[in-house]
Amino acid sequence: QGPLAESGGGLVEPGGSLRLSCTVSLSPFNAYILGWFRQAPGKQREFVAGINSRRSVAPKYADSLKGRFTISRDSASNQVYLQMNDLTPEDTGVYFCAGDYRPYGYSVSDSSEHYDQWGQGTQVTVSS
């Protein structure tokens, strides 16, 4: 198991919900901006959401996902979560957890190039 380990993926019907979890072994936990990306079959990896450890910095979401997805993190358990609601078949893909080492940074990047730590991914399939 690497420094980032996703879980919680699976098969869900359209309109359903899933909560993805990522166990983060990176240290110190609060020095990392944590993000979720996804990759659908035949498509490039895309940003889903990212969150800073600083509560004064609002999480960042892909515009198309605002209102359906919620990212959160828990420093007590070193976890980052992605709550996904009202899922559609277009949400199908492999979801990756990623870490961006920014001990003094504030901005959450939506570019995969800024994240240097990646999990193996968890499959999410939305289908009836």
Task: Write structural notes for this entry.
The protein has strands at 4-7, 10-12, 18-24, 32-39, 46-51, 60-61, 69-74, 79-84, 93-101, 117-118, 122-126. The protein has 128 residues and is mostly beta strands. The strands form two sheets. Strands 2, 4, 5, 6, 9, 10 and 11 form a seven-stranded mixed beta sheet that branches. Strands 1-3-8-7 form a four-stranded antiparallel beta sheet, with no helix packed on it.
Question: Can you summarize this structure?
Answer:
Helices cover 0% and strands 45% of the residues. It has 128 residues and is mainly beta.
Q: Over the alpha carbons, how many angstroms does the gyration radius reach?
A: 14 Å
Question: Which residue ranges are poorly predicted, with pLDDT under 50 across at least 5 consecutive positions?
Answer: none
User: Main beta sheet, described?
Assistant: 7 strands, mixed
Global shape: globular
Overall pLDDT confidence: 95
Beta-strand percentage?
Answer: over 45%
Helix-strand pattern: EEEEEEEEEEE
Helix content: under 10%
Structural class: mainly beta
How many separate helices? 0
Number of strands: 11
Alpha-carbon distance between the two ends? 32 Å
